[in-house]
Amino acid sequence: MTETSETILRFLDGDEEAFTLLVQEWQRRVYNLAWRFLGNREDAQDAVQETFLAVFRSLRGLRDPKSFPAWLYRIALNQCRARWRFRSPELSLDDPGPGRDGEEGTLPQVAAGGTDFAGRLEVRDLVCKALMSTSEDHRSAIILKEYMGLSLEEVARVMDCPLSTAKSRLYHGLRGVQQSLRKLGVGT
Fold it and tell me: Where are the domains of the chain?
């Protein structure tokens, strides 16, 4: 049994401190997902807060503690999608955002080119803009696979779709980002 599963079981047995441990363990990853999806620090922080509030309210209904990561990411994506639909998105380029598992400023290999810091920041900002230009489903698939490090099977579970649909969303999303980057002059 994983540490997360044990913590969930402790919470379900009435240990409310265990929920604090869950938040501490998963908060960075949920923020990473939210920032990548929303492109804005304040919206991402709000989405994280709403995500953990929803988790607190619903955790007793989780059937299998091993499915917690996919369940948590699904809740976080739903929070992000709700926020995205009710605002006009403004990309905040002053926040480097965390990378995979919360490492500051990490980008996938496609954006890691360039040796000078300013050049890497510019490419990172362009990748963020290109990612924001994709559809919600495509962006979700890219974030879950490339930034959160989930397998395609896990992406399909989080997005509640067949594996073939998850693969298609990832493929078309990455193609869209690539096309947007070409338009922005990256990789030409």
Answer: 1-87, 107-188
